[in-house]
Amino acid sequence: MTGPLRVGLIASARHPIREPFAGGLEAQTWTLARALVARGHRVTLFAGPGSDPELNTLTLPVHEMRLSEQARADVSMPHRDSLREHHAYLRLMLTLGRENRFDVVHNNSLHYLPVAMAPAVEVPVLTTLHTPPTPWLESAIQTCEPCPVTFTAVSEHTARAWRHVVPHARVVRNGVDTALWRAGPGGGVAVWTGRLVPEKGPHLAIAAARAAGCGLRLAGPVADHTYFTERIEPLLRGDIEYVGHLPCAELVALVGESSVALVTPCWDEPYGLVVAEALACGTPVCAFDRGGVGEIVTPDCGRLVPSGRIDALAEAIAEAKALDRSAARARAEAFCSVETMVADYVELYRELAR
């Protein structure tokens, strides 16, 4: 199949697809949608309320639940957000089952219903695996044999983690727009970016920066307020600073003027979009070697140390700072650019549409 493709792109219902992004998944969805449109494809984005109005977005039908007192008293009642999401995706998939206006439906959400209900949709359905295995999604894959959904994974690590139920997931790595994430001059203190939650380990980045005798600026949404109040705020003094949840342009400037980016996952990071963003800014990376991070970082653009080793991370900071910033930028352009990501997805879309 040649010519423009009609793509239905399913996004998160929980967070809007707009700046400043709630996390890497929202940023990647926004980047993918814009890049596909820029290349002439017709994209309809199904996303949560409040998403970027410049995207061709159909808001997912996320409605407030009006529950009786008796229903709310049920001890087995799931979280209200889960109920809202369930019914939103259910209505979406029922609608897609009645229509035939796309060449391919790309499920870029984390929800199980686009997989479980894929047999009701007449066009091919593609799902990207962004996380380690979850019980809801694993069970959805097994609701029919064989599962009609085609799967991609964001890293080799993630593909291996899902292999017991998805043996043939093609790896399509998340890409960053290297025209937006521009190379910066460096020279400043270290930087840490991402959601401020325990599994991302910003408290460990602070400890390593102190041990190395260098400053650190942290940027990102406070997704766990208790953790931030108890574990991060008490450490914010001197040259350790939290600068807030920044829009993209300010985040690019911050990362670009930093001498090194610290990446401290306390879980097996499925990909590590903050790594790709830092490299695109020419900023070398100093990271714990967990999950897919080691697939991006090479010796010429960063340093990897064993997970949780604050002492090793602190020692590696000076080495990472001394690396050639142009090599970091070149790694982003060659390995994790939006051009590579979109080319891989479009090739797969065309295969499925045929």
UniProtKB/TrEMBL annotation:
Residue stretches making up the Glycosyl transferase family domain: 190-332
Any single Pfam family the record assigns to this protein: Glyco_transf_4
Cleaved signal peptide residues: none
Occurrences of domain Glycosyltransferase subfamily 4-like N-terminal (ranges): 23-179
Entries under InterPro entries matching the protein: Glyco_trans_1 (IPR001296), Glyco_trans_4-like_N (IPR028098)
Keywords: Glycosyltransferase, Transferase
Gene Ontology MF annotations: glycosyltransferase activity
Protein name according to UniProt: D-inositol 3-phosphate glycosyltransferase
Higher taxonomy: Bacteria, Bacillati, Actinomycetota, Actinomycetes, Kitasatosporales
